[in-house]
Design brief:
Blueprint lengths: L12 H9 L4 E6 L4 E5 L2 H6 L9 H6 L3 H16 L4 E8 L5 E12 L5 E10 L1 H21 L10 H18 L3 E8 L2 H8 L1 H17 L7 E4 L4 E7 L3 H16 L16 E8 L7 H17 L5 E3 L2
Parallel strand pairs: 9-10
Antiparallel strand pairs: 1-2, 1-5, 3-4, 4-5, 6-8, 6-9, 7-8
Length: about 325
């Protein structure tokens, strides 16, 4: 019994065309010699509003790219195509009504047997929703990063942010040979305040003090941070020793003027602070921890000598 060989399937261009035009991706082809479109899928009109017959040459493609993206995308795609390299590009395409849609263009370079570029074929994908999600995630990441550097109760910088700022400002001061001042601030008898008035009132007092200290800052480079439970730290570049001492006194007075009742304080009937100050012009090879250590020592002396006072390291 003789078996008949199965019939070879003939390619059916109509089937291929139906498949291409039923996908969400938009197929296209450009003839390299003429730089004209040989084909654009009809899906293009639903997405961008431009009819397929309006896509005549690469000029039509280029002019329908957002002006901010156009030069970079066109130069990249032309260079990759000339080199015979398959590539892809993300860009904003202008719709017929003037809006824009994010497109990912995936391009395949077709070569002749001698290696010369014959055509470009590719697919356009609508990635607008993906770009929106990426933007939302990026914004969320910024918010999370900001939160990670902010004290949740007082809304000033936290210790992590202060440590980073000290490192940066110290390096700037070393490079520029300029002074840097650090203020260690402690609320006097805060444990007794908490014990007497309760933690809710204690939290409110911390917030008031933090806001008052922060209000004294004048420049973007100034930083106020919560360093511990009732301790705050401020970092101010550019002060002389005299200016730093006057600023410290202003901090002390500003909290004093809040007149927050403190029945358990041994120095006043209202809340007060003690401030340790250190101003240095750092040398190469020195560390910011030195500034912190000396200011902390000055704060210790301010507390030892009666509190509600400033103590300069000098």
């Amino acid at each position: 019994m003789t078996r008949q060989a199965p019939k070879q399937m003939e390619p059916d261009s109509a089937v291929y065309k139906t498949l291409l035009e039923s996908t969400k991706a938009i197929p296209w082809k450009i003839d390299w010699a003429t730089m004209k479109f040989a084909y654009v899928g009809p899906q293009i009109e639903a997405l961008l509003g431009w009819a397929p017959e309006s896509w005549v040459s690469v000029e039509d493609w280029a002019m329908r790219i957002h002006a901010e993206d156009r030069e970079g995308v066109v130069n990249f795609c032309v260079a990759q195509s000339k080199a015979g390299v398959d590539h892809e590009a993300d860009y904003r395409a202008i719709t017929r009504d003037g809006e824009h849609v994010w497109i990912r263009d995936v391009v395949h370079v077709v070569r002749k047997p001698d290696g010369e570029v014959e055509a470009l074929i590719g697919f356009m994908f609508d990635i607008t929703e993906r770009k929106k999600n990426e933007a939302r995630l990026a914004e969320l990441q910024k918010e999370l990063e900001a939160l990670s550097y902010r004290d949740g109760l007082t809304n000033v910088a936290n210790r992590r942010m202060f440590d980073s700022a000290l490192e940066v400002e110290w390096a700037n001061a070393v490079r520029n040979r300029t002074p840097l001042s650090l203020f260690m601030i402690d609320i006097d008898y805060f444990k007794q305040y908490n014990d007497h008035y309760g933690h809710v009132e204690g939290d409110k007092a911390l917030q008031l003090v933090a806001n008052t200290l922060r209000a004294q800052m004048r420049r973007p480079t100034d930083i106020c941070a919560r360093y511990g439970g009732e301790e705050f730290v401020m970092l101010i570049p550019g002060f002389t020793e005299e200016q730093a001492e006057r600023f410290a006194e202003r901090l002390r007075t500003s909290v004093n003027d809040l007149a927050i009742a403190h029945a358990k304080s041994s120095v006043q009937e209202h809340m007060t602070i003690s401030v340790g100050v250190c101003t240095m012009t750092p040398d190469q090879g020195s560390e910011g921890k030195t500034l912190l250590r000396i200011a902390d020592s000055a704060l210790y002396r301010a507390k030892k000598h009666g509190r509600n006072r400033i103590q300069s390291a000098s």
